[in-house]
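ok so I'm stuck.
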Amino acid sequence: MLKITGYSDRVSARPGETIKFMVNCELGEYRADIVKLICGDSSPDGPDFKEELIRTPANKRYKGRKQRIYAGSYGIVESNPALESLKSFTVQAMIWPTTPESGRQAILGKWNPKGKSGFAMGIAPDGSLGLMLGNGRNKVEVVSTGKPLIARHWYMVAASWDAEKKEVRLYQEPLRDYVGVSHGGTARKKIGIAKVAGNTAPLTMAALYEKNAGKRVVCSDFYNGKIDGPKISDQVLSRTEIEAMRGNSIPSGVATSVLAAWDFSRDISSIKISDISSRQMDGEIVNLPARGMTGANWSGAELCWRHAEAEYGAIHFHDDDLYDAGWEVDFELTIPKGLKSGVYAARLRAGDAEEYIPFAVRPERGQGARIAFILPTVHYMAYANEHLAFNGPLAEVLTGQVSVMHDTHLFLNEHREYGASLYDTHSDGSGVCYSSRLRPIMNMRPKYQTQWSCFGENDTNLREFNLDLYFIDWLERFGFDYDVVTDEDIHYEGIDAIEPHTVIITGGHPEYYSKQMRDAVFDFTQKGGRLMYMGGNGFYWRVALHGEVPGVIEVRRCEAAIKTWGADTGEYYHSFTGEHGGLWRHQGETEPQRLTGVGFTSEGFDISSYYRQTPAARDPRVAFMFKGIGKDELIGDFGFHGGGAAGNELDRADPALGTPPHALVVATSEDHTDLYMIVNEEILVNHPGMIGNNHPLVRADMTFFETPNGGAVFSTGSIAYGASLPWNDYDNNVARLTTNVLKRFANPKPF
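replied:
not stuck anymore, here's the structure
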């Protein structure tokens, strides 16, 4: 199992800027070296793995130490005298539990396990509403309603403690009743605790405070589900008064008794949670539970939270949420002056254990090559630490292959605290809509192999990061002067991040794009820039990046699309920005075809095919592309990914979806297997003829078209394309054609 893991605080930097590295090492010490990554394929039948050692002051031995990840989301409010001196009180909230059967879970509490002082309202071990009270001398009393809650149903819950009468009252009231189903209840009980002890621990929501670990707060008893409108009062409220407090306002009759009333419909795009009472006990969320979620009062009249914020007052907490691993810094690297732009990594070695933490070095400001490779770090975040081989029930059926587990897959399955990808579901079955890079991303590594078995002795079976390194190896092999820019850089800097360059080259699968990224690339092509889209299923999902905290993306999987989970109705809009989620295809004139000429049409994961040239390949406009290639040659009937250049996920041209009318389809793939099927968004009525050997939409189209001001776009329409470049040491027609295109695109002569 893996003994050393790590991550960095940023994924790109310019010379003179500093990157911090956080490392977990279970061995006594490790050696760190900075290396330039050129080819990440270490399989015996693939091209040679290539890296270059870069001498820096950071290259040295470091003492190893264990660093722990504390997953699970919660809300936290600092302690204050009003909370510490509570005698009688009432706490209440609207809740939508998703795993009420899974044991004790906190909803709202001010609890200190040292001496067991304070209180916590939550789900009791029997699955019903409960209140836990502690006297600070290790004596604890728990009262519950004894009526198990039903998962995914809304309840009004409240608990009070009468310090004079030594009495607990509980209210568990479902918003919807069913004939013969008893899932509501009340309780009223005197207990033996003389006094509920105060404490200076923070007030927490959806978890119980356990301890401090350095700068981090460690919690336990995590709650799964939604919480809406939690409140706390400093007296015992009547049932009528509790009911009056259900909304997003504070009734005047009880205003003086309200210590705090948190309205989660405010600051939805923030990590802040706002108290609307006069005491302003604002707090924040930790590990990014899902916001912009429908609340207990959602009417369905509005589907966008920006148009009816008061109905989106719920936060969905999960016991496995993770934003920032929170590890302490082990070493830093200041990018040396004069270091060439490229893809680099901190290589960590301890005994037989090895780890790489990749990052991009950008050119110095005011400098730059004509060519820029766009490293799709946002896309890597989307797939970060995915568990599809273990959790995907149809994985082997869809791929026609046996899953082969490597050490990384086994490690991630055992260490779920390392966080999930946007393809996974949480422990409560809800979809993972946020993913962060502030944690070790174990599948964004050179030498990483996917879980699918190889088809053919030369199939190296790589995807994502190592597939993209094939493009770096190709650029190096043919001596092109290039820079590397990340798509996250483009998000924050817009067209300024790429405008110094003449041509930009995508990776093999730039699937996830924010509006800022998409607009910058489109504007670049309209101003005379050249785009080489070197993959498939690109510019597919619309994502958002958080406006307050770095390194996290959001997706809302909605409407017709290829997806591993679906957002609930009313939760299609990004909480980070308020933008509609889903596919770019469904959002007006932003279809991938308008940008690249092609868009996602089919996927299959067994055998890749080839391209056949079309009559358009003889058009004088693309004569430069086919120099040295015979007119009858099949393009890419070879490769390290499924045995061909056209495979895995395919894009096609379609004027009805925005392909420019002057675009040339110069080659198109054929002869795909029956495991290639058209995408869901193409299906109006499902029928048997939806597969590769009989449906005309199952194909990859290689396209070219000119853009205003002398620019141009070239697209391959296939993820597998890049894995054919290094075949036969780059002496092949895929490498020849692609090199021809790049030479012409890098030439500033207008098209």
